[in-house]
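Table S2 (text version). Query chain:
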Amino acid sequence: MRNIAGGRDVGHIVSTPEQISAASTASTQPTTTAPGSDGAGTGGSGGSSGGTVAKPDRSETTTGVLFGIGAYGLWGLLPLYFFVLQPAGAIEIVANRVVWSLVFCALLITITRAWRVFGSAMKDRTIMGPLALAAALIAINWLTYTFGVTTGHAVETSLGYFINPLVSVLLGVFVLKEKLRPLQWAAVGIGFVAVGVLTFSYGQLPWIALLLAFSFGLYGFVKKRVGPRVDALTSLSVETVVLAPFAATTMVVLGATGMATLTTEGPAHFWLILASGIITAVPLLFFGASARRLPMTTIGLLQYFAPVLQFIVALTVFNEAMTTARWIGFCVVWLALILLTIDMLRTARKNSALRKKARLAEV
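Corresponding structure-token output:
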């Protein structure tokens, strides 16, 4: 991993955990954007991924893939962390995650001497407004995800992140007024069929999965719009500052009402909850290192690693049930993702050929 002694460098390494949503947006939307962790260089790692190095050498590519597997692997295993935090509930876990992530961000800003950059962002309304909205969206996402995992719906949470690329495509159509290619239309149509099958299976809309997918997709969209004006470390810090008063108040209320577990379940539990800041940041460092070395197509393929692991953990560790109808619904979702992946690879190959042709024409 690159030296992180400089403030700008860390800004290009650290990304928010859910910024990969924007990466999937970049991978699945019909128009091409500058490759990066946010699909448009939104913050950290985005500026130096596949867009600035057209053909990374083999060792850099291998290193990038290993970092990517590390990042998505840790995100995929995150349900196990929530599991060992029992009996802490979703609200307490998220409140602590916000507070200790802020502490970790403050430490990074201090080490990198980036307080001036952070202060400038806090004073800029055009940055603060979108990031406040992003903070609200990510709070919804974290609460929904943690609630799902801690209440026996880990399979459904993995479904949310499988669906997320389809949501990114829909945002491109309805918000950005983009035109879809035939395979993308087919994937979206199949996705709607999958939701219908899963609604039948669950006896209701899979609201946890849908709320995760849409909050994640909208978060990525907001980050994509503000990204070019703020680095990822500053962005994450501003978002946690926005959420910190609510998180701290929640921790105080839980403690006052005897519902907090932070100091009541022994030292191991205490330190595990305090580690949430580090557990949030480490995969971000890995992701940033990966995004700098890999083209967006590879990042787009690696993104499925996390929900696959979440799905496996839900079945093998949490022993959640999968009926035949649910298996059918998941298979339909995976078919839609296969079509999106084929379209993404075909588009990347076509764009690569066009760039090569343009370079030859310039010679």
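Notes on Table S2: Residues 314 and 320 are 6 Å apart (CA to CA). The two ends are 36 Å apart (CA to CA).
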